[in-house]
Amino acid sequence: MNPLQELLTEDEEMVELANKYGVNIYDIRKPRPRKEWTIFTGQILDLKTPVLTVLGTDGGACGKRTTAMVIEKEMNRRGYHTTFIATGQTGLIQGAKYGFAMDAFPLQFMIGELEREILRSNKAENPDFIIVEGQGALSHPAYASSSGILKGARPQAVILQHPPKREYLSDFPFIKTPPSVKSEIELIEHFAQTKVIGITLNHEEMNEQEIEATINEYEQVFQLPTTDVLKKGADKIVDRIIEYFFSK
């Protein structure tokens, strides 16, 4: 499986070698034929199924996909039927039934293709709940995927993933000032008609005491349920999701 932007199925030398040795090449980022690409139709505005995404304060290795999958697992355990929409190559490699590599598309089509995948999953499975994997960060100066997710998915709620000990943006060590939780929440809620309803932590470089202290601090400051889903589980976040979407 090739997760790169460079498509090996269009490389004559690689195709020749694959044929010689009986190897199949799968370009994970290879989009559908261009003539099939879709732009935003607005049909998602009429979607009744709740949609949630996990966004972050940083791009790479922030934990958005992992947190989204842990939340989905706990929702399933509680009896809710969910669909998961992958938006990057790793989610697709892991076997996501719905989704595409967003960064393989121009922004205009990225939005329409995400809307299409969400509507496709809803029609096929009639889920109780749709979870969209986050990409990048809305505040990130180099990535636009979070913007495409907020526009294409129209999530009614967002979980914000944050690495408290990260000292610079991933892949960009010259940017020494990662955004704060407060600034990212304000940006997301100002940019889109949605609400951040919970905070999840990436515990890199943190010990157990620091994780617990940060959870307590964030819950007091932001009045939002906060957890590290790998260390503490997703119960607190899923409780909030159910309260927000299903207890009205």
TrEMBL record:
Residue stretches making up the D-glutamate N-acetyltransferase-like C-terminal domain: 39-238
InterPro entries to which the protein is assigned, alphabetical: DgcN-like, DgcN-like_C, P-loop_NTPase
Alphabetical list of Pfam families matching this protein: DUF1611
Protein name, per record: D-glutamate N-acetyltransferase-like C-terminal domain-containing protein
Record organism: Gracilibacillus boraciitolerans JCM 21714
